[in-house]
Amino acid sequence: MSAGFYVSPEQLMKDRADFARKGIARGRSVVVVQYADGVLFVAENQSNALHKISEIYDRIGFAAVGRYNEFENLRIAGVRLADLRGYSYDRSDVTGRGLANAYAQTLGTIFSSGGEKPYEVELFVAEVGVTPDLDQIYRLTYDGSVADIQGHAVMGGQAESAEGYLKDNYSPGLDLDAAIALAAKALGHDDTAPRTLTGAQLEVAVL
After folding, report:
1. Average pLDDT of every residue of the chain
2. What are the boundaries of the signal sequence (predicted)?
3. What residues pair up with 154 in beta bridges, in sequence order?
4. Angle formed by the axes of helices 68-88 and 96-112, to 10°?
5. Which domains are delineated in the chain?
């Protein structure tokens, strides 16, 4: 009887992380930007049927990159959780932080489970506050890690290039037109082959 093939836990987690990152990188990027009156999502998306950006609840938005069926399942689960919590308690009890924590638990459990492949997704969850300093933006990665975002962030596709452009050109308090123009330029920014994106290539939403 032959011995089973052994893979160390460290190698297993590394392989699962590499698998998820490669799947996410194949998609197009999504940008989130805080502007003077709220939070802006801009995604490169030419599909009229498959959306990367959605409203989850009052003042709370969701954006995703990666496998559509996987992040669509997460979006639907988030809507149901928010509706249930708001109905059972109070609408003010539904928060962006609470939804981000729920998504983090789900993604972390799936990533750590050896019985199924990790989700190839990254998410933004944003909640617009009464004032700009109360806005909340969270980025969730495939392994359930959560980061608190200030100002702007990019995920998916050529995220590093777009993020570099935003760092060099973003300033707080932008109006909506300037924020959209900045996000579109960031999505098209590429050191080797820059592109100019048109409105037909973009999905845009504001909170």
Report:
1. 92
2. none
3. 31
4. 130
5. 25-206 (3.60.20.10)
